[in-house]
Specification:
Helix 2 crosses helix 5. The strands form 3 sheets. The chain has an 11-stranded mixed sheet with strand order 5-4-6-8-1-9-16-15-10-11-13, sandwiched between helices. It has a 3-stranded mixed sheet with strand order 2-3-7, with no helix packed on it. A two-stranded antiparallel sheet has the order 12-14. It folds into 2 domains: about 240 residues, Thiolase/Chalcone synthase (Peroxisomal Thiolase, Chain A, domain 1), CATH 3.40.47.10; about 150 residues, 3-Layer(aba) Sandwich (Peroxisomal Thiolase, Chain A, domain 1), CATH 3.40.47.10. The chain has 12 helices and 16 strands. It is α/β, with parallel strands linked by helices.
Protein backbone atom coordinates (compact mmCIF):
# COMPACT_ATOMS: atom_id res chain seq x y z
CA UNK A 1 0.00 0.00 0.00
CA UNK A 2 1.15 3.51 -0.82
CA UNK A 3 1.44 6.19 1.86
CA UNK A 4 -1.23 8.88 1.70
CA UNK A 5 -0.66 12.45 2.84
CA UNK A 6 -2.71 15.62 3.09
CA UNK A 7 -1.22 18.41 0.98
CA UNK A 8 -4.01 21.00 1.01
CA UNK A 9 -7.11 21.93 3.04
CA UNK A 10 -9.98 24.36 2.78
CA UNK A 11 -13.34 24.85 4.40
CA UNK A 12 -16.17 26.99 5.70
CA UNK A 13 -17.60 27.04 9.22
CA UNK A 14 -19.88 29.26 11.26
CA UNK A 15 -16.76 30.71 12.94
CA UNK A 16 -14.94 31.52 9.71
CA UNK A 17 -13.17 30.06 6.71
CA UNK A 18 -9.52 30.00 7.82
CA UNK A 19 -7.83 28.34 10.77
CA UNK A 20 -6.34 31.57 12.21
CA UNK A 21 -9.79 33.19 12.18
CA UNK A 22 -11.49 30.14 13.68
CA UNK A 23 -8.85 29.71 16.39
CA UNK A 24 -9.03 33.39 17.34
CA UNK A 25 -12.79 33.20 17.79
CA UNK A 26 -12.48 29.99 19.81
CA UNK A 27 -9.91 31.64 22.05
CA UNK A 28 -12.32 34.55 22.50
CA UNK A 29 -14.96 32.11 23.78
CA UNK A 30 -17.26 32.51 20.80
CA UNK A 31 -19.47 29.88 19.23
CA UNK A 32 -21.21 29.96 15.85
CA UNK A 33 -24.74 29.05 16.92
CA UNK A 34 -27.51 31.66 16.91
CA UNK A 35 -31.26 32.11 17.13
CA UNK A 36 -32.81 31.49 13.71
CA UNK A 37 -35.45 34.17 13.30
CA UNK A 38 -36.16 32.86 9.81
CA UNK A 39 -37.56 29.71 11.46
CA UNK A 40 -40.13 31.54 13.58
CA UNK A 41 -42.86 30.87 11.01
CA UNK A 42 -42.37 27.11 11.43
CA UNK A 43 -44.75 26.61 14.33
CA UNK A 44 -44.24 22.85 14.67
CA UNK A 45 -40.44 23.13 14.84
CA UNK A 46 -39.43 23.25 18.50
CA UNK A 47 -35.77 24.11 18.03
CA UNK A 48 -35.01 27.59 16.73
CA UNK A 49 -31.20 27.41 16.89
CA UNK A 50 -28.73 26.83 14.09
CA UNK A 51 -25.05 27.09 13.23
CA UNK A 52 -25.50 29.31 10.18
CA UNK A 53 -22.58 30.54 8.07
CA UNK A 54 -23.87 34.09 7.77
CA UNK A 55 -20.64 35.47 6.34
CA UNK A 56 -20.83 33.38 3.15
CA UNK A 57 -23.28 34.36 0.40
CA UNK A 58 -23.46 31.45 -2.01
CA UNK A 59 -25.53 33.44 -4.50
CA UNK A 60 -22.66 35.85 -5.22
CA UNK A 61 -19.68 33.51 -4.80
CA UNK A 62 -19.50 32.72 -8.52
CA UNK A 63 -20.93 33.89 -11.81
CA UNK A 64 -24.54 32.81 -12.21
CA UNK A 65 -23.68 30.69 -15.26
CA UNK A 66 -21.27 28.59 -13.19
CA UNK A 67 -23.81 27.93 -10.44
CA UNK A 68 -26.77 26.81 -12.54
CA UNK A 69 -26.20 23.24 -11.39
CA UNK A 70 -25.44 24.17 -7.77
CA UNK A 71 -27.46 24.81 -4.67
CA UNK A 72 -25.84 26.19 -1.53
CA UNK A 73 -24.38 22.84 -0.48
CA UNK A 74 -22.58 22.38 -3.80
CA UNK A 75 -21.32 25.97 -3.87
CA UNK A 76 -19.80 25.53 -0.42
CA UNK A 77 -18.20 22.24 -1.46
CA UNK A 78 -16.72 23.77 -4.63
CA UNK A 79 -15.47 26.79 -2.67
CA UNK A 80 -13.77 24.54 -0.10
CA UNK A 81 -12.22 22.48 -2.91
CA UNK A 82 -10.83 25.58 -4.60
CA UNK A 83 -9.23 26.68 -1.33
CA UNK A 84 -7.75 23.22 -0.79
CA UNK A 85 -6.32 23.04 -4.31
CA UNK A 86 -4.77 26.48 -3.93
CA UNK A 87 -3.29 25.45 -0.58
CA UNK A 88 -1.82 22.35 -2.23
CA UNK A 89 -0.44 24.33 -5.17
CA UNK A 90 -2.57 22.38 -7.64
CA UNK A 91 -4.89 25.03 -9.06
CA UNK A 92 -5.17 24.40 -12.82
CA UNK A 93 -2.44 21.76 -12.65
CA UNK A 94 -2.65 19.38 -15.66
CA UNK A 95 -2.64 16.41 -13.28
CA UNK A 96 -6.25 17.19 -12.41
CA UNK A 97 -7.30 16.15 -15.92
CA UNK A 98 -4.95 13.19 -16.18
CA UNK A 99 -7.44 10.58 -15.02
CA UNK A 100 -5.38 10.06 -11.86
CA UNK A 101 -7.20 12.72 -9.82
CA UNK A 102 -10.72 12.32 -8.49
CA UNK A 103 -13.13 13.30 -5.75
CA UNK A 104 -14.68 11.51 -2.78
CA UNK A 105 -17.23 13.68 -1.04
CA UNK A 106 -20.74 13.64 0.34
CA UNK A 107 -23.64 15.30 2.08
CA UNK A 108 -26.80 14.08 3.76
CA UNK A 109 -28.82 15.46 0.90
CA UNK A 110 -28.51 17.97 -1.89
CA UNK A 111 -30.05 21.43 -1.92
CA UNK A 112 -33.53 21.33 -0.45
CA UNK A 113 -35.10 24.21 -2.39
CA UNK A 114 -35.67 22.08 -5.53
CA UNK A 115 -37.51 19.56 -3.37
CA UNK A 116 -40.17 22.20 -2.77
CA UNK A 117 -40.47 22.66 -6.51
CA UNK A 118 -40.94 18.94 -7.10
CA UNK A 119 -43.48 18.77 -4.26
CA UNK A 120 -45.32 21.72 -5.83
CA UNK A 121 -45.48 19.86 -9.12
CA UNK A 122 -46.93 16.77 -7.44
CA UNK A 123 -49.51 18.87 -5.63
CA UNK A 124 -50.60 21.14 -8.45
CA UNK A 125 -49.53 19.35 -11.62
CA UNK A 126 -47.69 22.50 -12.72
CA UNK A 127 -43.92 22.55 -13.22
CA UNK A 128 -43.52 26.02 -11.70
CA UNK A 129 -39.82 26.71 -11.07
CA UNK A 130 -38.62 23.27 -12.15
CA UNK A 131 -35.94 23.36 -14.82
CA UNK A 132 -33.19 21.24 -16.36
CA UNK A 133 -30.89 21.60 -13.35
CA UNK A 134 -33.40 21.14 -10.52
CA UNK A 135 -32.52 17.50 -9.99
CA UNK A 136 -28.77 18.18 -10.27
CA UNK A 137 -29.03 20.65 -7.42
CA UNK A 138 -31.14 18.25 -5.34
CA UNK A 139 -29.38 14.93 -5.92
CA UNK A 140 -27.34 13.39 -3.13
CA UNK A 141 -24.14 13.45 -5.20
CA UNK A 142 -24.43 17.11 -6.20
CA UNK A 143 -21.33 18.10 -4.17
CA UNK A 144 -18.77 15.66 -5.64
CA UNK A 145 -20.13 15.99 -9.18
CA UNK A 146 -19.94 19.77 -9.12
CA UNK A 147 -16.43 19.65 -7.63
CA UNK A 148 -15.35 17.35 -10.46
CA UNK A 149 -16.91 19.53 -13.15
CA UNK A 150 -15.59 22.79 -11.71
CA UNK A 151 -12.03 21.46 -11.67
CA UNK A 152 -12.04 19.18 -14.72
CA UNK A 153 -11.37 16.04 -12.69
CA UNK A 154 -11.48 12.93 -14.86
CA UNK A 155 -10.66 10.29 -12.25
CA UNK A 156 -13.15 8.40 -10.10
CA UNK A 157 -16.04 10.13 -8.32
CA UNK A 158 -17.05 8.50 -5.04
CA UNK A 159 -20.30 9.65 -3.47
CA UNK A 160 -20.58 9.31 0.31
CA UNK A 161 -24.12 10.31 1.20
CA UNK A 162 -24.20 8.69 4.63
CA UNK A 163 -25.56 11.42 6.89
CA UNK A 164 -23.11 12.25 9.68
CA UNK A 165 -20.31 10.04 8.30
CA UNK A 166 -20.43 11.52 4.79
CA UNK A 167 -17.32 13.61 5.40
CA UNK A 168 -15.29 10.95 7.21
CA UNK A 169 -16.19 8.28 4.67
CA UNK A 170 -15.31 10.76 1.94
CA UNK A 171 -11.82 11.03 3.40
CA UNK A 172 -11.57 7.32 4.14
CA UNK A 173 -12.56 6.06 0.70
CA UNK A 174 -10.27 8.60 -0.95
CA UNK A 175 -7.44 7.34 1.24
CA UNK A 176 -8.13 3.79 0.13
CA UNK A 177 -8.28 4.78 -3.56
CA UNK A 178 -4.79 6.27 -3.35
CA UNK A 179 -3.35 3.62 -1.05
CA UNK A 180 -4.36 0.86 -3.47
CA UNK A 181 -3.09 2.70 -6.53
CA UNK A 182 -6.37 3.73 -8.14
CA UNK A 183 -5.55 7.45 -7.96
CA UNK A 184 -2.64 9.77 -7.20
CA UNK A 185 -4.74 12.71 -5.94
CA UNK A 186 -8.22 12.82 -4.43
CA UNK A 187 -10.29 15.76 -3.20
CA UNK A 188 -11.99 14.40 -0.12
CA UNK A 189 -14.52 15.66 2.40
CA UNK A 190 -18.10 16.68 2.92
CA UNK A 191 -20.60 19.52 2.89
CA UNK A 192 -24.04 20.43 4.21
CA UNK A 193 -26.34 23.41 3.98
CA UNK A 194 -28.47 24.53 6.90
CA UNK A 195 -32.15 23.83 6.36
CA UNK A 196 -35.08 23.49 8.79
CA UNK A 197 -35.95 20.16 7.16
CA UNK A 198 -32.74 18.80 8.65
CA UNK A 199 -33.66 20.24 12.05
CA UNK A 200 -37.12 18.70 12.12
CA UNK A 201 -35.65 15.26 11.37
CA UNK A 202 -34.07 15.36 14.82
CA UNK A 203 -36.91 17.41 16.32
CA UNK A 204 -39.33 14.55 15.71
CA UNK A 205 -36.91 12.28 17.59
CA UNK A 206 -36.83 14.73 20.55
CA UNK A 207 -33.09 15.05 19.91
CA UNK A 208 -32.73 18.81 19.28
CA UNK A 209 -31.88 21.51 21.78
CA UNK A 210 -34.74 23.84 22.67
CA UNK A 211 -32.56 26.24 24.63
CA UNK A 212 -33.80 28.94 22.27
CA UNK A 213 -33.10 31.80 24.67
CA UNK A 214 -29.39 30.91 24.96
CA UNK A 215 -28.38 29.82 21.45
CA UNK A 216 -24.64 30.43 21.87
CA UNK A 217 -24.41 27.80 24.62
CA UNK A 218 -27.15 25.44 23.43
CA UNK A 219 -24.85 22.72 22.09
CA UNK A 220 -23.34 21.01 25.16
CA UNK A 221 -21.61 17.74 24.19
CA UNK A 222 -21.34 15.27 27.10
CA UNK A 223 -22.67 17.85 29.58
CA UNK A 224 -25.10 16.87 32.31
CA UNK A 225 -27.50 19.64 31.25
CA UNK A 226 -27.41 19.05 27.48
CA UNK A 227 -30.84 18.89 25.90
CA UNK A 228 -30.06 17.94 22.32
CA UNK A 229 -28.11 18.83 19.22
CA UNK A 230 -27.99 22.05 17.21
CA UNK A 231 -28.00 21.72 13.42
CA UNK A 232 -25.22 23.55 11.59
CA UNK A 233 -23.76 23.82 8.12
CA UNK A 234 -20.37 23.94 6.45
CA UNK A 235 -17.90 22.25 4.15
CA UNK A 236 -14.33 21.02 4.19
CA UNK A 237 -12.16 19.42 1.52
CA UNK A 238 -8.74 17.84 1.97
CA UNK A 239 -6.36 17.21 -0.90
CA UNK A 240 -5.06 13.68 -0.40
CA UNK A 241 -2.01 12.61 -2.36
CA UNK A 242 0.36 9.71 -2.78
CA UNK A 243 3.44 10.63 -0.75
CA UNK A 244 5.89 9.97 -3.56
CA UNK A 245 3.77 12.01 -5.99
CA UNK A 246 3.72 14.88 -3.50
CA UNK A 247 7.48 14.73 -2.97
CA UNK A 248 8.14 14.63 -6.70
CA UNK A 249 6.38 17.97 -7.19
CA UNK A 250 7.86 19.55 -4.08
CA UNK A 251 4.69 19.66 -2.03
CA UNK A 252 4.90 19.92 1.76
CA UNK A 253 2.68 17.33 3.49
CA UNK A 254 0.52 18.61 6.33
CA UNK A 255 -0.28 15.20 7.81
CA UNK A 256 -0.42 11.53 6.88
CA UNK A 257 -3.49 9.29 7.06
CA UNK A 258 -2.46 5.97 8.56
CA UNK A 259 -5.81 4.23 9.12
CA UNK A 260 -9.46 4.22 8.12
CA UNK A 261 -12.03 1.83 9.54
CA UNK A 262 -15.79 1.72 9.05
CA UNK A 263 -18.53 -0.71 10.03
CA UNK A 264 -22.22 -0.79 10.91
CA UNK A 265 -24.20 -1.63 14.02
CA UNK A 266 -26.67 -3.84 12.18
CA UNK A 267 -29.14 -3.24 14.99
CA UNK A 268 -31.13 0.01 14.94
CA UNK A 269 -31.42 2.93 12.55
CA UNK A 270 -31.19 5.69 15.17
CA UNK A 271 -29.95 4.14 18.44
CA UNK A 272 -26.13 3.83 18.46
CA UNK A 273 -24.41 0.67 19.65
CA UNK A 274 -21.29 1.12 21.76
CA UNK A 275 -20.01 -2.39 21.03
CA UNK A 276 -19.61 -1.86 17.29
CA UNK A 277 -18.28 1.65 17.80
CA UNK A 278 -15.56 0.11 19.96
CA UNK A 279 -14.77 -2.39 17.21
CA UNK A 280 -14.27 0.35 14.60
CA UNK A 281 -11.95 2.32 16.90
CA UNK A 282 -9.86 -0.77 17.63
CA UNK A 283 -9.74 -1.70 13.96
CA UNK A 284 -8.26 1.71 13.09
CA UNK A 285 -5.64 1.31 15.82
CA UNK A 286 -4.81 -2.15 14.48
CA UNK A 287 -4.39 -0.83 10.93
CA UNK A 288 -2.11 1.94 12.15
CA UNK A 289 -0.18 -0.50 14.37
CA UNK A 290 -0.69 1.80 17.33
CA UNK A 291 -1.74 1.43 20.94
CA UNK A 292 -4.10 3.90 22.64
CA UNK A 293 -1.14 5.52 24.41
CA UNK A 294 0.27 6.52 21.01
CA UNK A 295 -2.68 8.86 20.41
CA UNK A 296 -2.30 12.48 21.42
CA UNK A 297 -6.02 13.23 21.38
CA UNK A 298 -9.39 11.99 20.21
CA UNK A 299 -11.65 14.17 18.08
CA UNK A 300 -15.02 12.85 19.21
CA UNK A 301 -18.36 12.98 17.42
CA UNK A 302 -20.07 14.52 20.47
CA UNK A 303 -23.47 15.53 19.12
CA UNK A 304 -24.91 16.51 22.53
CA UNK A 305 -27.73 13.99 22.18
CA UNK A 306 -28.67 11.88 25.18
CA UNK A 307 -28.01 8.34 23.93
CA UNK A 308 -25.34 9.33 21.38
CA UNK A 309 -22.93 10.87 23.88
CA UNK A 310 -23.34 8.01 26.34
CA UNK A 311 -22.70 5.29 23.76
CA UNK A 312 -19.71 7.12 22.26
CA UNK A 313 -18.11 7.76 25.64
CA UNK A 314 -18.51 4.11 26.63
CA UNK A 315 -17.00 2.93 23.35
CA UNK A 316 -14.13 5.41 23.62
CA UNK A 317 -13.33 4.35 27.17
CA UNK A 318 -13.35 0.70 26.13
CA UNK A 319 -11.13 1.31 23.10
CA UNK A 320 -8.72 3.95 24.42
CA UNK A 321 -8.95 3.96 28.20
CA UNK A 322 -9.39 7.09 30.28
CA UNK A 323 -6.09 8.90 29.70
CA UNK A 324 -6.23 10.13 26.08
CA UNK A 325 -7.44 13.76 25.80
CA UNK A 326 -10.94 13.74 24.35
CA UNK A 327 -12.89 16.65 22.84
CA UNK A 328 -15.65 17.55 20.40
CA UNK A 329 -16.03 20.59 18.13
CA UNK A 330 -19.82 20.54 17.90
CA UNK A 331 -20.22 22.89 20.83
CA UNK A 332 -18.59 25.51 18.61
CA UNK A 333 -20.39 24.91 15.29
CA UNK A 334 -23.38 22.73 16.00
CA UNK A 335 -23.77 19.48 14.10
CA UNK A 336 -22.99 20.05 10.42
CA UNK A 337 -24.10 16.51 9.51
CA UNK A 338 -22.44 15.50 6.22
CA UNK A 339 -19.70 18.10 6.70
CA UNK A 340 -18.73 17.38 10.30
CA UNK A 341 -16.21 14.60 9.74
CA UNK A 342 -14.36 16.62 7.12
CA UNK A 343 -14.40 19.84 9.18
CA UNK A 344 -13.16 17.96 12.24
CA UNK A 345 -10.38 16.31 10.21
CA UNK A 346 -9.30 19.65 8.73
CA UNK A 347 -9.27 21.55 12.01
CA UNK A 348 -7.73 18.70 14.01
CA UNK A 349 -4.76 18.65 11.62
CA UNK A 350 -4.40 22.38 12.26
CA UNK A 351 -4.57 21.77 16.01
CA UNK A 352 -1.98 19.01 15.85
CA UNK A 353 0.42 21.16 13.85
CA UNK A 354 -0.21 24.21 16.07
CA UNK A 355 0.18 22.23 19.30
CA UNK A 356 -3.09 23.67 20.60
CA UNK A 357 -6.30 21.85 21.49
CA UNK A 358 -9.50 23.81 22.23
CA UNK A 359 -11.78 22.76 25.03
CA UNK A 360 -15.21 21.35 24.25
CA UNK A 361 -17.42 24.43 24.20
CA UNK A 362 -20.18 24.58 26.83
CA UNK A 363 -19.01 21.44 28.63
CA UNK A 364 -18.98 22.37 32.32
CA UNK A 365 -20.23 19.26 34.15
CA UNK A 366 -19.83 15.73 32.79
CA UNK A 367 -22.99 13.66 32.60
CA UNK A 368 -22.39 10.91 35.21
CA UNK A 369 -23.90 8.41 32.75
CA UNK A 370 -21.00 9.09 30.35
CA UNK A 371 -17.88 6.97 30.77
CA UNK A 372 -14.75 8.24 32.45
CA UNK A 373 -12.52 9.99 29.90
CA UNK A 374 -9.99 12.81 29.89
CA UNK A 375 -12.51 15.37 28.63
CA UNK A 376 -10.88 18.61 27.49
CA UNK A 377 -13.01 21.23 29.24
CA UNK A 378 -12.91 24.74 30.69
CA UNK A 379 -9.76 25.81 28.83
CA UNK A 380 -7.58 24.85 25.84
CA UNK A 381 -4.47 22.69 26.19
CA UNK A 382 -1.01 22.87 24.73
CA UNK A 383 -0.20 19.58 23.04
CA UNK A 384 2.73 17.85 21.37
CA UNK A 385 1.34 14.83 19.56
CA UNK A 386 2.31 12.43 16.78
CA UNK A 387 -1.14 10.90 16.13
CA UNK A 388 -4.82 11.63 16.67
CA UNK A 389 -8.04 9.76 15.95
CA UNK A 390 -11.20 11.30 14.52
CA UNK A 391 -14.45 9.37 15.01
CA UNK A 392 -17.93 9.85 13.57
CA UNK A 393 -21.24 7.99 13.70
CA UNK A 394 -24.41 8.21 11.60
CA UNK A 395 -28.02 7.14 11.30
CA UNK A 396 -28.24 3.56 10.12
CA UNK A 397 -25.55 2.60 12.60
CA UNK A 398 -22.62 3.64 10.40
CA UNK A 399 -19.36 4.11 12.30
CA UNK A 400 -16.01 5.52 11.16
CA UNK A 401 -12.57 6.04 12.66
CA UNK A 402 -9.66 7.82 10.97
CA UNK A 403 -6.12 8.13 12.36
CA UNK A 404 -3.77 10.92 11.24
CA UNK A 405 -0.02 11.26 11.84
CA UNK A 406 2.15 14.35 12.05
CA UNK A 407 4.69 14.43 9.27
Amino acid sequence: MRRVVVTGMGGLTALGGTWPEIRARMEAGQTGTRYMQEWDRLSDLNTKIGGAIDWFDHTTAYHRKKTRSMGRVAVMAVNAAEKALAHAGLTDDPVLKSGRAGVSCGSSFGATEPVQDFAGFMGTGKAGSLNATSYIRMMSHTAPVNIAIANGLTGRVITTSSACTSGSQGIGYAYEAIAYGHADIMLAGGAEQLCPTMAIVFDTLFATSTSNTSPETASKPFDKKRDGLVIGEGAAILVLEDLEHARARGAVPLAEIVAFATNSDGAHVTQPKAETQTIVMREALKQARLSPSDLGFISGHGTATDSGDIAESQASAEAYGARVPFHSLKGHFGHSLGACGAIEGWLSICMMNDGWLPHTANLTEIDPRCAELDYVMHEPRKIDVEHFASNNFAFGGINTSLIFRRI
